[in-house]
Amino acid sequence: MKKRKGSLRMTVTMTVTTVLAVPLLTAAVVTVIYMREQTVVLREMIRGILTDFGYQEVPFDDTIWMCTSGNLSGQCYGHGFAIGHAQDILGHPFRLLAMFFIGFCIFIAIIVWVATGRLLRPVEEIRRQMTEITEHDLTRRVPVPRGRNEITELAATVNATLDRLEAAVEDNRRFVADASHELRSPIAALRTELEIATAYPELADWPTVVDAALADTHRLQHLATDLLLLARLDQTATAPVSDAVDLGAMLRDDTGRRRSRHAVTVDLPDHPAVVRGSRALLTQLLTNLLNNAERHATSRITIILRATDTVAVLDVADDGPGIAPQDRERIFDRFTRLDDVRTRETGGTGLGLPIARRIAAAHGGTLDAVDHHDGARFTARIPLASRESADAR
Fold first, then answer.
1. Phi and psi for 303 in degrees, rounded to 5?
2. Do residue 265 and residue 321 come from a single domain?
3. What Rg value do the Cα atoms of the chain yield, rounded?
4. Which residues, in sequence order, are bridge partners of residue 313?
5. In this predicted structure, what is the pLDDT of residue 92?
6. Which candidate, 170, 187, 175, 185, places its Cα nearest to that of 230?
7. What phi, psi does 164 have (nearest 5°)?
8. Using CA atoms, how far apart are residues 99 and 91, in angstroms rounded to an integer?
9. What is the share, in percent, of the chain residues with pLDDT greater than 90?
10. Measured between alpha carbons, how far is 331 from 130 in angstroms, rounded to an integer?
11. pLDDT by residue (tens digit) across 276-295?
């Protein structure tokens, strides 16, 4: 990373210096060419003027002299002017200009190098902190520099991402711990029953033992199925398939097959309530809500389906003990059971409502526990399919 950082600073420095130096270099070259041309013109003008006044050229030591009298051996008599010296004197600004240009480029390069280093210092600090963050310590955060610029926004975005990552990892750890605990209980019960039966085979009621083992096995199978479905829902943001599903027809079929010990009232709309999604998942959502109502109802379950212009609203209510306001979000956490009305024997796996909410979210909808005058009520909202989709069905 150090090498990349230095390379970036070098690239920025060279780029900025080049951008500033190229116009200056172009102007300097044009100026040099123009001044050299003017020097030649000036020298010829001086030579012509001095020749008109009777001077003659006398070369001496690579320098041309204009003298009133002289000879070819380089001797000059009387008054003389070194024309070559004039050209050399005019050439001094060229060297000064070149030295100024080089110094200017070096100065700009130093300024850009220092400024880039100061600008990249927060990025280096963010990089250093990120390298020290591991899955065992997700509480650390990168420093957010002062000011309002892109680096500040980058640091804030990194911290927000770390917050979500920490929450996801903690949620996964709790899920693994809760799943292990939930699986351990039926396995321990099954093992105990079988060990007692095998230890005292002559006293065991084998039909009862087999029935109890089958019940524990079914519970384990149901729990494993719910865990797999929940894991699959956690990995996808939308429903895996997108079919046109009439919720009214699905409710009619499901309630017609279901056998309940309570009075079930179903209120369906006169027109179809068609949504797009997975029929299997939507059936699972309805089944979980009805199972929850069946478990807690005293004598009555009410199912109401209505459709607005944009959403289908499904209400499932029971006349049971209800849900306290402070528990209406907690019941959607995995393996949550309300102590006063739910146990492992009668309360299911504690995954039905979390699965139902995730199914609703996968279909672009919501599922909430809402106020109800007598018992509990769950309201699911699923967006309706477009008219073209409903007609295509």
1. -120, 125
2. yes
3. 45
4. 306, 381
5. 61
6. 175
7. -65, -40
8. 13
9. 13
10. 36
11. 988 888 998 998 999 889 88
Asked if residue 248 and residue 229 are part of one domain, the reply reads: no
Tokens found for residue 12 = 């920025």
Output the 3-class SS for 211-247. Answer: HHHHHHHHHHHHHHHHHHHHHHHHCCCCCCCCEEEEH
Amino acid at 81: F
Give residue 83's domain range: 2-132
Domain annotation covers residue 199? yes
| Domain closes at, from 182, 199, 234 | 234
Residue 298 has pLDDT above 80, yes or no: yes
The DSSP letter of residue 81 is E
Whether 138 contacts 146, CB under 8 Å? no
Task: Residue 305: count other Cβ atoms within 10 Å of its Cβ.
Answer: 21
363 with 387, same domain?
Answer: yes
150 part of a folded domain: no
Q: Which of 195, 210, 234 is the last residue of a domain?
A: 234
Amino acid 229 reads L
Which residues, other chains included, contact 299 with Cβ-Cβ below 8 Å and sequence gap of 6+?
262, 263, 319
The span from the CA of 69 to the CA of 50, in Å, is 12
Cβ-contact 268, 305 below 8 angstroms? yes
Answer whether 230's CB lies under 8 Å from 334's CB. yes
The two three-digit tokens of residue 41, written as one number: 């013109």
